[in-house]
Amino acid sequence: MLYPTIVWAVEQHYRIGIVAPRIDVVEELGWRIERDFLIEQIRLHGQTTESYGYTQIVISTVQQLLRFYQAFDLLIVDEFDAYPLVDNPVLLYAIQRAVKVTGSLVYLTATLPKRLAPGIQLLTLNKRFHGGKLPLLEVQFCWNWRRYLPSHLKRQLQILDAKQQVLIFVPRVNDLDPLAEKLRAYSKGRVETIHAQAKNRQAVIKAFKTGDIQLLVTTSLLERGVTFPKIDVAIMGAEEALYTKAMLIQIAGRCGRSVGRKDGHVWTYIQTQTIKIKQVNRELRTLNEEE
């Protein structure tokens, strides 16, 4: 959906803005555009070091739009339901201000909010680009995963191929290091952690993409907007309140994102079953059945 829109806009000689709420998503989008299009671009966010200059494509965090006024013929807002954009009147105003009066706004998300602004036309795509289905949450009951590594996860790690990678989500930053230490006893490869305040997070993401890291333990930082081919996912304590339904759907969507592997496992470790978990799987099944 994104690429045909960009191709059309480039052919019209339009100036294109692509924005996202998080730096990591901006870098991911910039990397993809740089790989697939021979068009000059600039990436703008709080860690940008290059000087600003005019380019046909600008890829930035939403906050950077405060620097632009009626600058874009086409403005694409990725993950528009994510923090810090959601319910932020200043950033929503910046979006409206940055697009030309004759320009177009495109909002993208995999988890549609219940309420949309007036005038938005809705287009729903229920299939992934490769035609594969969304993976369901594979529920595994465990007791006190913070103290004991779940037996099911131990078995999966023991039979895991040396080149197979797993992205492991935890609810809180202080869960990262204790879990990573337990995982190192069972991993055949490198184990690392990542969170929003980590200074080396771009290097860690790059190392995971290239396969140098086998197990990456993360907070909700990597719930959306990033693509790692051929991975499995584990969610620790998915019944905890921090995980919303939208977040769990986004996390499940990290699996099966490549033509080479259209499916994947989403091992979901919980101490108690919740209505939320059942609702997520019900919604995923519904999406998989729709044409």
Task: Tell me about this structure.
- The chain has 8 helices and 11 strands.
- It has 291 residues and is α/β, with parallel strands linked by helices.
- It folds into 2 domains: 107 residues, Rossmann fold, CATH 3.40.50.300; 153 residues, P-loop containing nucleotide triphosphate hydrolases (Rossmann fold), CATH 3.40.50.
- The strands form 2 sheets. A 6-stranded parallel sheet has the order 6-11-10-7-9-8, sandwiched between helices. Strands 2-3-1-4-5 form a 5-stranded parallel sheet.
- Helix 3 links the parallel strand 4 and strand 5.
- Helix 7 packs across helix 8.
- The two termini are 16 Å apart.
- The mean pLDDT is 90.
- Keywords: ATP-binding, DNA-binding, Helicase, Hydrolase, Nucleotide-binding.
- It holds the Pfam family Helicase_C.
Keywords:
alpha/beta, Rossmann fold, 6-stranded parallel β-sheet, 5-stranded parallel β-sheet
Amino- and carboxy-terminal Cα gap: 16 Å
Round the mean pLDDT to the nearest integer and report it.
Answer: 90
CATH architecture annotation of the largest domain: 3-Layer(aba) Sandwich
Strand content: 15-25%
- Rg is 20 Å
Global outline: globular
Helix content: 25-40%
**Number of helical segments with 4 or more residues:** 8
Quick one: CATH superfamily of the largest domain? P-loop containing nucleotide triphosphate hydrolases
CATH class of the largest domain: Alpha Beta
Helix and strand element order: HEHEEEHEEHEHEHEEHEH
The class by helix and strand makeup works out as alpha/beta
Q: Would you give the CATH topology of the largest domain?
A: Rossmann fold
Q: Strand sequence of the main sheet, in spatial order?
A: 6-11-10-7-9-8
Main sheet overview: 6 strands, parallel
> Regions with pLDDT < 50 over 5+ consecutive residues?
none
- Overall strand count: 11
Count of structural domains: 2
